[in-house]
Amino acid sequence: MSRTTSSIALAGASDVSWRSALGLDQNSPIADLPFSAEDITAGTETELQVVVVGDRDRVDLPLEIAASRFYANLQRRTQSGESPRKNITLLQEYLENNREGIWENSWVRFSRRRLCDQALQVWNQDILANKSNPAAGPRTDLHRFHLVGRQGEDCLRVPVSYLLKLALADFLGRRGHTHDRIRQTGASILDHFLSDNTSPETFSFHVEQLSPSRGMGRQVARETAKRYLLTQLLVAYANHQFGLVEDGQKVMVYFSPHPPLRQQHLNDLISDTFYRHLYMSPCLSGWNQGEEKFHYMELCHQVLSRSRLNAVAKLREAGIILNNLTVLPNMSNISLANNGVHLSIGSRRLSRALRDSHHGFNGGHEKWIGDLVCKSLEMFLPLFATTYSAAPRRLAFSDFHPEQVLGFLPHQLDDTHLGMLWRRWKKKADISIFGHALTPFGPTWLDRGLSRLCSLRGDLVPDFRLLDYPICFLSTEQSPAYSGVCGNQQQLLDDLSSMGIFDRQMSLYQFFKLRDYASMKFSGFEGRHHSLFPDLDRDLAGATNLQILVTALIFKYLVRDQLSHRHIPDTPIIESERRQIFFGMAVGIPTFFVHKKTRNRLLLKILRQTEKIRTSRRYPGYLRIYHHEYCLGLLRLIQEDGADLIEMFGFADLLTDLETRLRDPDKASAAGRLIGGICGGKQKDALRMTAEEFNREAERYCRTTLRHEHIHQAMDFIQADLKQAGISSAVEGLTPQLNRLLNQQVTDDFCRRAADDLITGRSGPQSIEQMISLVLLLEDRDRHMNMDATDSEEVYAATASVY
Asked: Is residue 631 scored above 50 in pLDDT?
């Protein structure tokens, strides 16, 4: 299929009532459309990795394991011969053989007397069973958080996600001379520190009102970076103020997309119940009934563990597993410990129309539009995967059991596309002998021996996080997820629950999620496909701008009557057809296949812009398409159909940068730069390293190099803030000590030295407190700048927990 112009319009949409309700028609100027230049709000949720560094007799995780009934019972069963000695030996080795002293996702212990009165008030509030009804008393699991220390003192035991909130509360309570604006700002963001399943999670301290004059996606990157910096400062504060370092527990927090290797190994040695006890968040912060939310987290883990087991049966039905030689997944699934970034964008125009009922625009209209936009956006997802974010992972030959590496894909792709992807993945990976792909047999000793004998190196996957987690479940024939009909997704949840894939009590996982006004108090979309951003400014800002541009383009199609639900039929095969492209990008395979008679009209429109398409020889009736060419076709489509949007947003540089990333992925893409950083600049060494060597080096890279770079990037934003005009008005009334700190901003190396001191641990308590005050002060100023830009009610209506 040769490239043709993209001016071929899709047939008009039949449902136009939503347009008239918004006061729009086919000729409305683009500046009046939802998600136009001055219409967008945005925010992010970021999930972070935790480690506690220290000896096994000082850190909570090994102490908790050694003191557990699980460990005692395992010892008893081993002594009585009921359990193989290997089980207890491996668990003892996990506890004893940790030369680096790094304990991933451990909790921390410290004396209760370390907390000031205000922090204790926060603690006493958060341990209530129902925070809106103190008379109900404390949580029933309160005993988990209290213990007697080595000196006989009353100690608290909490996850690091909650430690961050306590550190901020303690800072605010001890700084009696802190300026009112800093105290108020700090108090307002306490509940922005929470946890998602296992990892600490923060969400935007304020909702950004985006504008081309203020930087668009760079505004989001700036807020995210400064939030990350405050997290680092609170960790440093807790390490000093709560005596953690003094007691042999040094906490570190950073971006890292994969569950840690040692945590995966431990998961293989313990029961699923004990795993949940060690790692599931107790939900002390962010929820009115935290213990109830904790039980929901447990449900999520149980459901996904069961779902992973059920995926094995689907692999057999698909003909990928041909015999009974399988490696069953662990009963305890660890995918909930991976980390990504959720990026939400909202439309002020849609939110206002839904808030003001006399417009006639209602939730039914929002649902009709939202589902159509979500499934349309999925076809643009390959532009994001590995390009702006990534999660490189090395797989050894012994890992290439389909029931292991294909993860949740059997629940996300049709059997046809799953088989196509698996065949191409085996061809790409270094697992072939004399041209024939070979998968491992099962016994570890045999697979490793064969790997060494035949030099079978496995594969390097550029974004394995997207395969190891259920991003978006496939619809059923009876219950399409994106039909535009209210209640359709609950029906799908019922179907998935009856099939043992999911649970009707859980929120449906999706690539793009409609954030409906009735639930969220704003109308927009959440992108959940972002993994690790190597550079918060360059990559997060670029991904934000691209998500905005694509969303605006889809709305332009809708308003111009060029796109409707009938152009993207709601069948499992059509869903799978478009999603295979995204998963193929994550795997790094070169090609995918689309049926010549596909009924997905938007996909056909994109393929008319795509070069080097030919008829497949292996799959009659299918077209063979290169991922690289498909992405370039998407770029051409955006440039042609979105020319006016690009001009409105000022995104010419964005498209130039995107093309550079696509044409030179090794040097310019997120995946290429991360792999280069992990391998010390020599990407070819990735497959020369063993899988364990590469993956351990990737963890070290995130923990050290990338963490340091992200801190420096955040300090660069601070430095730019300090140089902006008008800072003096925000500084008015601060303590002389903080004023002296801010006066140093005229020196070029102020923020560089502050970042270096934070990284190396040279920052003293006074310096840490000053920097926390500075970040809170700038947050207060940012909020006022957003209120200057737009109506405060619209910007902050859902700040409490929207993003």
From this structure: yes
From first CA to last CA, the distance across the chain in angstroms is 42
**Neighbouring residues of 627: CB distance < 8 A, sequence distance ≥ 6:** 382, 581, 584, 585, 589, 590, 591, 592
Q: Which residues contact 137 (CB under 8 A, 6 or more apart)?
A: 128, 129
Cα 493 to Cα 501: distance, rounded to the nearest angstrom: 9
Q: What are 209-268's pLDDT values in tens digits?
A: 999 999 999 999 999 999 999 999 999 999 999 999 999 999 999 999 999 999 999 999
How much is the average pLDDT of 599-623? 97
Residues in the chain: 803
Rg (CA), the chain: 26
Question: 561 CB contacts (<8 Å, ≥6 apart)?
Answer: 12, 13, 16, 26
Q: Which amino acid is at 467?
A: L
Give me 3's structure tokens.
Answer: 């490239």
Structure tokens belonging to residue 508: 């449906």
Residues 6+ apart with CB under 8 A from 651: 216, 545, 549, 645
Query: Per the structure block, which two tokens stand in for 669?
Result: 């893409």
Q: Name residue 147's beta-bridge partners.
A: 155
Return d(Cα 52, Cα 703) in angstroms, integer.
12
Helix (H) / strand (E) element for 512: namely strand 512-515
List phi, psi (to 5°) of 229: -65, -45
What share of the chain has pLDDT > 70, as a percent? 92
C-alpha to C-alpha distance for 157 and 247, rounded to whole angstroms: 14
Neighbouring C-beta atoms of residue 620, cutoff 10 Å: 8
**HSE-up of residue 798 (Cα within 13 Å, Cβ side):** 27
d(CA 252, CA 240): 13
Which residues have C-beta within 8 Å of that of residue 630, sequence separation ≥ 6?
382, 581, 592, 606, 607, 610
In angstroms, rounded to a whole number, what is the distance separating the alpha carbons of residues 142 and 156? 10
Paired tokens of 538: 């360059």
Assess contact for 160 and 109: CB atoms under 8 A: no
Count the neighbouring beta carbons within 10 Å of the beta carbon of residue 571. Answer: 16
CA distance 236 to 765: 8
